[in-house]
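Ops channel
N.P.: pipeline sanity check, posting one input/output pair.
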């Protein structure tokens, strides 16, 4: 099976920033042929932004449609508002072996569950 993968060398990532209601969403995308590559990105995001409110994540460490080597996390955001929307964008992209982390700095305005889900999904979509 042939499928597109991120054109990024191991240990490198693409970054994109989105601002929604004064909250900053920093999206990081990496090539993740196995979960360990994604974990390295998550560790680096936490190291570079220790004061961030959240480090939400999603990955597909295999072909598109993979159901074994996948994962997502809301990292303290309300359930289903970050990791799952991020994963759905990855899944819908048709890419395989891809991981992402979205680091959020809270801007003082609550976005609500729908607003959070849209913001996290939008950050990933723009980064891709």
């Amino acid at each position: 099976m042939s499928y597109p993968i991120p054109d990024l060398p191991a240990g490198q990532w693409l970054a994109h920033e989105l601002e929604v209601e004064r909250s900053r969403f920093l999206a990081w995308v990496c090539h993740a042929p196995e979960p360990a590559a994604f974990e390295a990105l998550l560790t680096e995001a936490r190291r570079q932004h220790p004061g961030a409110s959240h480090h939400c994540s999603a990955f597909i460490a295999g072909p598109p449609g993979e159901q074994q080597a996948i994962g997502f996390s809301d990292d303290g955001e309300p359930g289903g508002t970050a990791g799952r929307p991020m994963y759905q964008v990855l899944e819908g992209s048709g890419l395989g072996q891809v991981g992402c982390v979205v680091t959020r700095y809270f801007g003082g305005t609550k976005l609500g569950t729908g607003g959070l889900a849209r913001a996290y999904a939008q950050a990933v979509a723009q980064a891709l």
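N.P.: looks fine end to end. The chain has a mean pLDDT of 93.
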